[in-house]
User: Fold Dehydrogenase/reductase SDR family member 7 from Cottoperca gobio.
Amino acid sequence: MDCCIVSALWCLVALYLFIHCLCFIFADADFTLLWASLFGNRPENKLKGLVVWVTGASSGIGEELAYQLAKCGSHLILSARREDELNRVKRCCLECSDLQDEDIRVLPLDLLERTTHKEKTKAAIQYFGHINVLINNGGRSQRSLCLETSVDVYQALMELNFLGTVSITKQVLPHMTQRGSGSIVTVSSVVGLAGAPLATGYAASKHALQGFFNSLRTELTDFPNILISTVCPGPVQSHIVQNAFTEELTKPMAAAGNQEHKMPTSRCVHLMLVGIANGVKEMWIAQQPFLMFYYAWQYAPTCAWFITNMLGRKRVQNFKAGLDADTAYFTKPKTS
Assistant:
């Protein structure tokens, strides 16, 4: 009898592990986030009526955040450099939701102009009276080899992605500590957790953000109702590649390549909002095989280094051959 019970328990354990492995194969986010998406709070319930300030809202993930937040009923402050694009996003938000014109404030913002951030934050707070959620989404990527990249590019990446984000955060945070609640959500990247070729400066800026916000979170233990959350997406369909820095500040990207193999922006943003609604402190969002790399770096770094070096070598070869670095991992570079 005892043997039957033990055998049954082992079968249940094996079945449990099999189901988890099967789920992992098809997963596109970490287990905490997926669990929240299935059994946690719904964004449309938790975020309705909240004031959300989104930077980098004129395109890509920021634009999609505006649309989905509008459908949730959030009041929006949309910021980026291009005011005409922000107005376009606002019009689309009004068309796809029940929000009224006064529920969305367009607030042009340049993350590099840090001397303006105090006044911009003051204007944002005055318009709605408070800010519930700040989503730090503004920034640029990089596609260039270290040996060919100007130091000016590295400086620009740190000024924009890191210091610009820190500056806005430092302006909003006192408002949230005074209220005793709020959420600061920062879009990092998979390269904020692990390095990648062609993105030495970008990875450095995202590592800096990870370190800053992980440390900030520990400083705010006296404010349990303030959420500090970082989002680490893998490849997502957006304009980040088209707008990436190259080896020189003024040199544009030659071609962005096909984006169809990447995660749809709408899925990435939905998972982000699920994480915000459920207070998830760090979100890993990526399709396979990229999600596997997150776990490998966390639990098997030696194995992760082997895989990263193998794929990294291929990525550099493809880049030098003029192929798109993001789509050509498993194709042979064409040689003349």
About this structure: The chain has one domain: 27-301.
